[in-house]
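Extended Data, record Arrestin-like N-terminal domain-containing protein
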Amino acid sequence: MCTEIRRISVSYDPINASNTFSSSDCISGRVTLEVEKETKIKSFLVKAKGKASVMWTEHYGTTMFVYHDKETCFKLEHFFIQEKKSIEKDGFSLLQDQSSEMYSDVVPPGCHVYSLFKYHSSKDMPSSFKGSVGKVVYFLEAKLNRSMRLSAKDKVEFKYLSKTDMRVPDMKKAQFGNAEKNLKFLNSGSISVNASINSMKYYFGRCQSYLPCCKPNNTNL
């Protein structure tokens, strides 16, 4: 980080003892910026984002296959200072200070607190989770850009708890499925995979892993 920026940090306000959020909750917080001398800012934003990713490997003889995928659960952005030539995006909003004025793109020396950003999502999303082959993470990230300088960033994770009704019929019953795939690369043949989990859904904190246990069956190469 360049010497003009001493510190940048983002934080949020907990709303309960378990420090979790759900679809009906509002996340609010602040970004603290400390600068050593007068600084010209190109853009300054804070965003809330949820990402799900999975990756595992399987070996068939001497051949190793890597399976991976990722998905953005949601993304919302709030700008304190927006680059003038920027194009408006989904989830975009321009924040104002406590006097309902636009934030200046020239910041004087000292410590400055950019507050009152709020996020609310009306849709239910998967609960926070971290396992050996996959994870679902939610975080707030502050990012400050200046001309001809590296970006200054800070990020903090928060826990999200899905409100899916666990009383839905069959929700807690064991699940089982299978699929067959024909291979046409390097080797020819087919792979049949069986997957099972002992319950359809778990809440954060009740189980360390809910990913299915998969293993190839009747592999013919």
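Summary. The chain has two domains: 5-160, 175-220.
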